[in-house]
Design brief:
The chain has about 375 residues and is of the alpha/beta class. The protein is built from eleven helices and 15 strands. Helix 10 packs parallel to helix 11.
């Protein structure tokens, strides 16, 4: 089977991780972040990992006030293990829109995997680069150079994009604005109006010109650029996207980190056994679950011929809306028409899955 040996343990970063405390304010934390998909890792006094702070979730998706304490706006990211593979890391980053993921084992924080380390690992592996199919997005959403901040905000929200090329009246590329560029307008504490101040004395910040926040220097590539060219540019310039422009300096395409992550995820080897897995929409450990099931079917295939493995995971939530118990139903369908079913309910999803798989394995081995 085609396997890619790169795992989270090969990409682990332990020094220079941005740390936050529960009592720190959102404005203080965000000021230390350099890109929209970056993260600050929050720990309590006992060094227990609580979650992350990320501009996409705290500002653009939830719109927490700048003075909010981190304890009240923490996002719980996907957790990866030291043996999580390259393509599964890419999948989780793309799905969560978080490009800095915590690596944990037995509830112990080991470090993080960053997007730059992931990109460098691809850049240095010629075999992967040859297999990678990296396509640019051709329907580029642009914004006029005389637009206001509210126009950019609405375009990003409605089109679900994190950056907008800025064009002049002739359609020529003249700049770029991203979610990160406009974050300051949303994280700066709003001043209360002074006594007897005149209404309309100050222009609302949403009516500011987009030029106040945009970058004039935009990194571009030609349409003929190879995946290696694009990834090298992203790593060297520490940027999240490149614009593809034509001979008349008009933007005709865009390639972002998200596009690269999707291309990496597609390198995952195809599974021989058909898995039918159903989980809640807010279940963030889907990739870990798929890994467990893949390893299980590989092991069981030594004893019996498998047609499909179906598994349904359901969560029962407490009054606070958090998962308190997990119920798992599994069914192994064999090619000879036989089937084995199992059910378990536990406080931890991994324990419930382990129980149903262990019971199925014992029954399979007992039939030999």
């Amino acid at each position: 089977m085609d396997r890619i040996p790169i795992q989270a343990s090969d990409l682990l970063k332990t020094d220079g991780v941005l740390l936050g405390e529960p009592d720190e304010t959102l404005a203080q934390a965000i000021s230390r972040i350099t890109r929209t998909h970056d993260a600050i890792f929050v720990f309590d006094d006992t060094k227990k990992f609580l979650g992350v702070i990320n501009p996409y979730y705290t500002i653009f998706k939830s719109n927490f006030p700048p003075e909010t304490k981190l304890a009240h706006c923490i996002f719980h990211p996907p957790i990866i293990a030291p043996d999580t593979t390259l393509w599964d890391i890419a999948t989780l980053m793309a799905e969560s829109k978080l490009y800095y993921l915590p690596v944990m084992q037995n509830n112990t924080f080991h470090g993080i995997v960053t997007i730059n380390r992931l990109l460098r690992s691809i850049r240095d592996d010629s075999r992967l680069l040859q297999r990678m199919k990296l396509e640019m997005r051709k329907n580029v959403i642009t914004i006029d150079e005389d637009a206001m901040l509210k126009d950019a905000y609405s375009a990003m929200r409605d089109s679900q994009v994190s950056r907008l090329p800025i064009v002049n009246a002739n359609g020529r590329l003249v700049g770029m604005v991203s979610r990160y560029d406009i974050r300051e307008a949303f994280t700066k504490p709003k001043q209360k109006p002074r006594f007897l101040s005149r209404i309309g004395e100050k222009e609302p910040f949403m009516n500011h010109s987009i030029n106040k926040y945009s970058k004039k220097l935009v990194i571009t590539v030609k349409a003929s650029a190879t995946p290696l060219d694009i990834i090298n540019t992203m790593v060297r310039k520490n940027i999240g996207s490149v614009i593809v422009q034509d001979a008349r300096y008009r933007p005709v395409g865009l390639i972002s980190t998200y596009d690269v992550l999707k291309a990496i995820a597609s390198l995952r080897p195809k599974r021989g056994t058909l898995l039918d897995v159903n989980t809640p929409d807010d279940f963030v450990e889907r990739v870990r679950l798929d890994e467990m099931l893949s390893r299980f079917t590989e092991k069981i295939a030594k004893y019996t011929q498998i047609k499909t493995l179906s598994l349904t995971l359901q969560s029962k939530k407490n009054a606070a809306g958090k998962a308190s118990r997990y119920e798992v139903h599994a069914k192994l369908n064999k090619t000879n028409g036989g089937a084995i079913t199992s059910r378990a309910e536990e406080y931890e999803w991994k324990k419930a899955v382990h129980e149903v798989l262990e019971r199925i394995q014992k029954q399979v081995e007992g039939e030999r």
